[in-house]
Amino acid sequence: MANWREVKALSFDIYGTLVDWESGIYSTACTSALGPHLPSREKTLARLDEHDRAVQREHPTMLQRDVIAEGLRRYASELDVVKDGKLTQAEVDNTAKQYGAAIGTYPAFEDTVQAIQSLGKRFKLIPLSNVDKQSFSQTLAGPLKGCHFDAIYTAEDIGSYKPDLRNFHYLLEHMKQDLGVEKGELVHVAQSLLHDHGPAKEMGLTSVWVDRGGRIGGEDLGGQERFGWKLKVRTLGELAGIVKEAFGKVYHAFVNFALPEKVLILTVDGRTLTGTLISCDQVTNIVLQDTIERIIREPDDEEPSAEQAHGLYLVRGDNVVICGLVDEELDGSIDWTKVRGSVVGSTKHV
């Protein structure tokens, strides 16, 4: 798998990876008027998936809530529920409409919210979803409440459905434009091999397979060689743990090397701080002892450069641009009040 510290963003399939798509559609179908006439869960999911994919191919700009409604309508026709007098066509149409409108209520997997919050501390998070914007908004307000995403790209925005490569071209173009993320800095995270990992491989993207064990698009049809995923996990929580451990190794290496040494920190707002490093956590919150802030004036400034003491000082991780060891002998030989230089500007996190 890639060096996680070189990754800036994760793109996600949402429904099937973060949200339990299969339980959502099956539960909604079973509690509808069509429910008593459905066969087994496995067969129902398989046939609904076939119909949905056919509708997507025939109508690539149709909204997903309308796609699955039409898919259910076609499945009802296949089951002959109207022909056999079990339901009227009006009942089927009403059931299909209610079924399509329920996407926003599908449950998130139990590990999803905590995992997304953890991953969001380190990466930009970008959904690439086949679901329409209205349904996705309902999911964000409900099952995924508490999850923050930096950009959201849907089939409704793009005008096609995954596995169409246009969706992945759109992702790459817009994440660079909107977030400054390059292709090589992205990892795509998804459950569906057919909808996500196949096209991700064609696009040369690094991907992680979240194998939720579902029926739709998740069966290992040829495995890693065919679909190209670099890492396989069972849950999103497992992935978050792997990332945390990877960053933790870097953290421990730094702490073991630097404690209790003198370090210099450059902050986001352009401040320069020195002090003895006495604590650091996995999100780079840093505690310094005997902290000195160096205020270096420009050559034409009448005020002299200065050093201001702050004592015990906490620097939040999101305010750290760089932290490095200080050569104490060299540092002590310099009269910093006489040093002049250009002002260090602020830094923007992207």
In short:
This protein folds into 3 domains: 4-20 and 108-246, HAD superfamily/HAD-like (Rossmann fold, 3-Layer(aba) Sandwich), CATH 3.40.50.1000; 21-104; 259-338, SH3 type barrels, CATH 2.30.30.100. 38% of the residues lie in helices and 19% in strands.
Written overview of the protein:
The chain contains 12 helices and 11 strands. It starts with 8 loop residues before the first strand and ends in an 18-residue tail after the last helix. The mean pLDDT is 91. With 350 residues, the protein is α/β, with parallel strands linked by helices.
Task: Please tag this protein with its features.
350 residues, alpha/beta, Rossmann fold, SH3 type barrels, 3 domains, six-stranded parallel β-sheet, five-stranded antiparallel β-sheet
Kindly report the CATH topology of the largest domain: Rossmann fold
Separate helix tally? 12
The helix/strand order is EHHHHHEHEHHEHEHEHEEEEEH
Q: Mind describing the biggest β-sheet?
A: 6 strands, parallel
Strands ordered across the widest β-sheet: 3-2-1-4-5-6
Q: Care to count the β-strands?
A: 11
Can you give the mean pLDDT? 91
Class by alpha and beta content: alpha/beta
Which overall shape is indicated by the principal axes computed on the Cα atoms? elongated
Work out the helicity level: 25-40%
- What gap, in angstroms, lies between the N and C termini? 23 Å
Under the CATH scheme, which architecture of the largest domain would be assigned?
A: 3-Layer(aba) Sandwich
**Percent of sequence in beta strands:** 15-25%
Number of self-contained structural domains: 3
Spans of at least 5 consecutive residues with low confidence = none
Can you identify the CATH superfamily of the largest domain?
HAD superfamily/HAD-like
Level-1 CATH class name of the largest domain: Alpha Beta
Radius of gyration: 27 Å
